[in-house]
């Protein structure tokens, strides 16, 4: 990954101006990579990151860029508000008298002063670039730690569970930082080293490659400290044998109800949900049993601990272990994704210009350009004939034409483009219209927009979301065929 570079040890750069310049560049690189990596795969991000850095090598270059240029560079990465926030933040950092282009090294300041930087990104910048013992906890790390601690909880929405895991990550990185062979000291007296960054990235890497949703426990370098592994091994080596244990829960008997973990859910009720969040058949149900607490895990007999660290050698045994580990963290049934259908109306003027309008500055696809679109309020209107009528009425009103005005013609419905956002399943029905003899000097205001409309003869070059761009491809193909 091109953004992974050796840590800059401040004590190895005696010239303060040179150090500042190098830190400024490094912090900027780490920041951009971390924002791009949110919701996007590493393999995709590498190319975007390289192009971004070639175009805007420093934060000052980015701050001076045009908003549309930034959106265009982000095209295809999705969640476009990230690009807008990065751009806004770069201007703030460059204009600020204290920062003058250099991101702060402290987690608290990063979160307080930089738009779009939450505690994960702040931790990553602070640890990787500035060498501070800050935790960085992404989804992969939440999974690794919930298995290491044997915490069967909802790591997405249960605040107590999330706080506990962040607390564990903080304690770990602070301990690891103490372990560093060479420490530098920051302006505020804090010990700095490469350890926090390497540790945090190592933990994330482990979650991305080994402790995945379907873990490879036999190849895991930290199985000896893993509670889920230990519980699985106990199941597998139980005198009843692995075959009976595959759908069971750990058999450790809780000596006292007060010793039960108040954060962990019972296995019967929750852990039997499979990866799709479904409950398997009744026969697979395990007896209700709470996990033992962290306290009882840590104070378990040495005999148990020895069992945990001795690697099993047969495949059946390992299968029981990984099946048990897969139960962590708690699987939560996903909310149904909202479905919506919309009419995307490409209105072509006689001279080949198309009407486009800009989406609002906040919310979904913020600031991007699109063809005028109207949501179908009634799903029963989702038949081609109704869609044509509704789209025609809508375009008449957009252009301020009276019903039946012959200057407007519905050319046809070109197809339907399905598009999936994290919370929304959208189907875009692309309608092509032609209009002639209308005022070409001004563009009509598209209902519901406040950011402006205009006629464009270069739709290809406009900053549009990938879904809208697919709609444009249908229009382009239709025009090519017509010529
Ligand atoms: S032993 Fe298995 S469950 Fe535990 S951390 Fe390693 S891969 Fe994850």
Automatic annotation (TrEMBL):
Bound cofactor: record note: Binds 1 [4Fe-4S] cluster.
Region Disordered, residue ranges: 442-462
Family: Belongs to the Nth/MutY family.
Role, per record: Adenine glycosylase active on G-A mispairs.
Protein name per UniProt: Adenine DNA glycosylase
Composition skew (Polar residues), residue ranges: 442-456
Domain of life of the organism encoding this protein: Eukaryota
Species of the source: Apiospora phragmitis
InterPro entries attached to this UniProt entry: DNA_glycosylase, HhH-GPD_domain, HhH_base_excis_C, MIG/MutY, MutY_C, NUDIX_hydrolase-like_dom_sf
Keywords of the record: 4Fe-4S, DNA damage, DNA repair, Glycosidase, Hydrolase, Iron, Iron-sulfur, Metal-binding
One Pfam family from the record: HhH-GPD
Residue ranges of every copy of the HhH-GPD domain listed in the record: 36-209
